[in-house]
């Protein structure tokens, strides 16, 4: 039998459906009597099929040629694979290999660009793929990407620059730098101290920066003229930091990192939701664009990682509630909308990726 990666993509999709594994094009729904986890997995597969069949470009390895959103999709595929590797690993490897190899070639041979957060998204995806495949080449690529991320350290107000133009200090760039450093420290014992020291340095800055506001949510960044927190509160800013602090707790055994992560998670679940408790991009009242439509998925994915490190029942309830709202009110077939309450808005591939995250997160915390 031919390897999947040697076949045209349309034929790959056909084989996925006929072999009934990985991310198949299928209409076979699991019955309502099935266990909850299996129901969420089935719903996630339907969503993944719609996303991949319509937007994945095997020539570039990207979804709709979008650079930072694509590694987020890879993280979610890896998370789904981790739930049932015997079922999903073969076809997921197709996406891992095709996306990583061709996106890197498309970008000139690496994952570097002008934005440190973009590099961070790719580094996190490479680490997550390493976690499920145990292939060192992905971890090595994450290390090389981190080497370029390091050049953004020591911003004018402390912390990490958002871009190589040094115009802004964004929370997300700092959170991703911290997350990647701590994650590498937990996976590269030969350089554990090296990564740990940089992660702790950034964590101390973050905790002292004022970015965690009185609601225990995270502001978008720091004004380089005043060194004061500024900008809108977006869901993803309160998301990535959850797994970053969970990784740093694992690396250092310092309880303050987990305590802070739980406090931020609770703040987001209290203040970044509608009256029914459905996660909402409060800071962006207009129709979400292709960037902001991804943010809620980033939050729920990282809440899932925090739950894996330090379980709490309220996280299970929250993730299941949001996934249920999506499936009942905000989808047509496998296509998920931008507002999980079902309020109409503009539809992008990133809506589907965000919803895919929510369904996988609910599966991960369910029995």
Could you characterize what this model shows?
The chain has 13 helices and seven strands. By secondary structure, it is mainly alpha-helical. It has a three-stranded antiparallel beta sheet. Helix 9 (240-252) runs parallel beside helix 11. The chain is globular and about 50 Å long. The model is unreliable at 1-35 (pLDDT under 50).
Give a summary of the structure in a few sentences.
This protein has 367 residues and is mainly alpha-helical. The chain has 13 helices and seven strands.
Give the terminus-to-terminus CA distance.
Answer: 36 Å
Number of helices: 13
Give the overall pLDDT as a whole number. 91
Global structural class: mainly alpha
Oligomer: single chain
Total strand segments: 7
Which descriptor suits the 3D outline?
globular
Query: How are helices and strands ordered from N to C?
Result: HHEEHHHHEHHEEHHHHEEH
Helix content range = 55-70%
Note poorly predicted spans.
1-35
Largest sheet features: 3 strands, antiparallel
Q: Mind telling me the C-alpha Rg?
A: 19 Å
Our estimate of the beta-strand percent is under 5%
Sequence of strands across the biggest β-sheet: 3-4-5
């Amino acid at each position: 039998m031919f390897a999947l990666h040697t076949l045209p993509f349309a034929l790959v999709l056909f084989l996925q459906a006929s072999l009934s594994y990985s991310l198949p094009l299928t209409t076979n729904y699991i019955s309502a009597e099935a266990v909850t986890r299996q129901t969420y997995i089935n719903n996630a597969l339907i969503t993944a099929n719609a996303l991949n069949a319509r937007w994945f470009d095997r020539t570039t390895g990207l979804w709709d040629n979008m650079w930072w959103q694509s590694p987020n999709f890879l993280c979610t595929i890896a998370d789904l694979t981790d739930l049932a590797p015997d079922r999903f690993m073969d076809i997921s490897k197709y996406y891992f290999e095709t996306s990583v190899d061709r996106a890197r070639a498309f970008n000139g041979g690496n994952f570097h660009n002008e934005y440190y957060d973009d590099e961070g998204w790719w580094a996190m995806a490479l680490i997550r793929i390493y976690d499920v495949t145990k292939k060192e080449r992905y971890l090595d690529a994450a290390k090389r990407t981190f080497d370029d991320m390091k050049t953004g350290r020591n911003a004018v107000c402390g912390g990490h620059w958002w871009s190589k133009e040094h115009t802004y200090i964004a929370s997300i760039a700092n959170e991703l730098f911290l997350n990647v450093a701590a994650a590498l420290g937990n996976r590269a014992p030969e350089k554990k101290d090296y990564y740990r020291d940089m992660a702790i340095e950034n964590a101390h800055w973050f905790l002292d920066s004022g970015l965690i506001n009185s609601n225990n949510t995270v502001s978008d960044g720091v004004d380089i003229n005043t060194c004061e927190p500024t900008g809108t509160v977006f869901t993803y800013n309160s998301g990535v930091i959850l797994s970053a602090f969970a990784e740093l707790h694992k690396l250092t055994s310092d309880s303050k990192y987990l305590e802070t992560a739980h406090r931020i998670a609770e703040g987001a679940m209290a203040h970044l939701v509608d009256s029914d408790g459905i996660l909402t991009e409060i800071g962006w009242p207009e129709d979400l664009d292709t960037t902001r439509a991804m943010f809620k998925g980033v939050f729920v994915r990282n809440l899932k990682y925090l739950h894996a490190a330090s379980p709490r029942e309220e996280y299970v309830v929250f993730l299941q509630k949001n996934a249920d709202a999506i499936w009942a009110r905000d989808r047509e077939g496998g296509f998920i909308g931008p507002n999980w309450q079902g309020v109409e808005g503009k539809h992008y591939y990133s809506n589907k990726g965000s919803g895919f995250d929510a369904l996988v997160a609910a599966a991960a915390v369910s029995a």
